[in-house]
Amino acid sequence: MESDLGELGRARFRLVGVFANGFALVALQNGGAVYIVDQHAAHERVRLEMLQAMVHDHLQDLKQCNHLDTECINRCRASSDPMWIDRTLRSRACRGAVPVTRSTRVEELVWIITSLAQCRHPTACAHGRPTMVRLSLSQDPS
Q1: Is 133 in contact with 36 (CB distance < 8 Å)?
Q2: Is pLDDT of 1 > 50?
Q3: First-to-last C-alpha distance (Å) of the chain
Q4: Looking at residue 114, what DSSP letter applies?
Q5: What is the pLDDT of residue 82?
Q6: Domains and CATH numbers, the chain
Q7: Which of 39, 48, 122, 124 could form a disulfide with 93 if both were Cys (CB 3.0 to 4.6 A apart)?
Q8: Dihedral through CA 8, CA 100, CA 126, CA 92, nearest 10?
């Protein structure tokens, strides 16, 4: 599946349409694969990786910060329980993602799909639900 998503990230794609209020049909323009993309799960994954990057950058900045007193820095580090941070980020990624039942503008869907293709872990949302499924267009019934 990873190589398929890499294919999507490198290729130009065409948004064929949206169905069932939340699923996009995407075709690669090189005549390759066709995907069904779950807009909520895809947006959730994109948001999670963006939030994780922001938190990581913030913690790195905090470690190098000279203008805060030591007590303040130590309090911030102590309250940075990794499991709590992870649960919070996953929850915020989900709650801030495009709702399943909302109609999404074409430009927004294209941004979500393009961003998903750039993610480190694009195959599942923050809770493990698949973000997309590649359809096989094979004529062979076996």
Answers
A1: yes
A2: no
A3: 20
A4: H
A5: 76
A6: 2-135 (3.30.1540.20)
A7: 48
A8: 120
What is the model's pLDDT at position 100? 85
Distances (CA, A) of 31 to 7, 44, 111, 116: 12, 28, 21, 20
**Cα–Cα distance between 7 and 4 in angstroms, integer?**
5
Q: Please state the three-class secondary structure of 33-97 as a single string.
A: CEEEEEHHHHHHHHHHHHHHHHHHHHHHHHHHCCCCCHHHHHHHHHCCCHHHHHHHHHHHHHHCC
**Percent of the chain, pLDDT > 90?**
36
For residues 40-54, one letter each, b for 16 or more C-beta atoms within 10 angstroms of the residue's C-beta and e for the rest, the string is bbbbbbbbbbebbee
Q: How many Cβ atoms sit within 10 Å of the Cβ of residue 85? A: 15
Q: Which tokens sit at 1?
A: 């599946």
